[in-house]
Specification:
Helices cover 63% and strands 3% of the residues. By secondary structure, it is mainly alpha-helical. The longest helix has 36 residues, at 140-175. It binds protoporphyrin IX containing FE (HEM) (2 copies). One protoporphyrin IX containing FE (HEM) binds at residues 28, 31-32, 35-36, 39, 51, 54-55, 58-59, 61, 103, 106-107, 110-111, 113-114, 123, 147, 150-151, 154, 157.
């Protein structure tokens, strides 16, 4: 509808922030599932193909998160709902910042991991272009370190997303306030 706002207002998220949120949310949930599956499949060929998909999807997520942060910086920040208690405001701000930080660090650590790998496997992004390796030292010790970091960040991310989703569901079904609704319905041109 034409009275939807593209930009955020002090009261709510605009269409662009909402589209970014849900596109990234779907991709991230798929990416976590893919990551956990691909390290467990026995078939080497299938594992290789899944890892190629994982790397491509991870870079797409990294690009979207950077664009999303730029859009966020260029927009007003919607104020927390007045009904929230002080600890809820502080907790949600902290979790949102941590989500951004972890979802920047996670794909970057994956990129460093494949760059440090002694196997030197190329990354063909969605079969379209070759991703350059980052200028980091190539060694088994380095690869082991970056693998451990990528894995730890992935598990931290899973914990953060779980808390975030449970909080959203609590607001919607228990407190019955407008927190989830404003991430579904864009702010209107005619705010009260
Ligand atoms: C938001 C983006 C990403 C998420 C959520 C994510 C998540 C994961 C998860 C959950 C695993 C399995 C961890 C385990 O249980 O061992 C994994 C493994 C892996 N990821 Fe990612 N990842 C992301 C981005 C990337 C990127 C951009 C790359 C490379 C360009 C990458 C390369 C890898 C590799 C090579 C492994 C296998 C590590 C091993 O051999 O154990 N990831 N990732
Ligand atoms: C699929 C389940 C998800 C639900 C139900 C959900 C729900 C919400 C809701 C209701 C808000 C608005 C909070 C407010 O107005 O204060 C929000 C914001 C946010 N969500 Fe999610 N979310 C989900 C998945 C994710 C995932 C996977 C991420 C990972 C990056 C994420 C990152 C964020 C961030 C960073 C914000 C803050 C936006 C900003 O103000 O810049 N969400 N989410």
């Amino acid at each position: 509808m034409s009275d939807f706002r593209f930009r955020n207002t002090k009261e709510g998220y605009g269409l662009v922030a909402i589209a970014f949120h849900w596109a990234v949310a779907v991709l991230i949930l798929g990416q976590i599932g893919l990551g956990l599956t691909m390290v467990r499949v026995a078939d080497q060929r299938l594992a290789f193909n899944l890892i190629q998909w994982h790397k491509s999807l991870g870079l797409l997520i990294l690009t979207l998160i950077v664009l999303r942060l730029l859009w966020r910086m260029a927009n007003p920040r919607p104020l927390p709902l007045a009904s929230l208690r002080r600890w809820e405001k502080a907790a949600s701000t902290a979790v949102h910042r941590l989500l951004y930080a972890v979802f920047l660090a996670l794909p970057l650590s994956g990129w460093v991991l494949v760059s440090a790998s002694v196997l030197g496997i190329p990354t063909l992004v969605f079969g379209l272009f070759l991703l350059p390796h980052l200028p980091v030292g190539v060694s088994e010790a380095g690869e082991t370190f970056w693998r451990l970091l990528h894995r730890s960040l992935a598990y931290t991310a899973i914990a953060l997303v779980t808390v975030h989703v449970l909080a959203a569901l609590r607001h919607h079904f228990i407190l019955k306030d407008g927190v989830l609704r404003r991430m579904l319905r864009p702010a209107r041109r005619t705010e009260p």
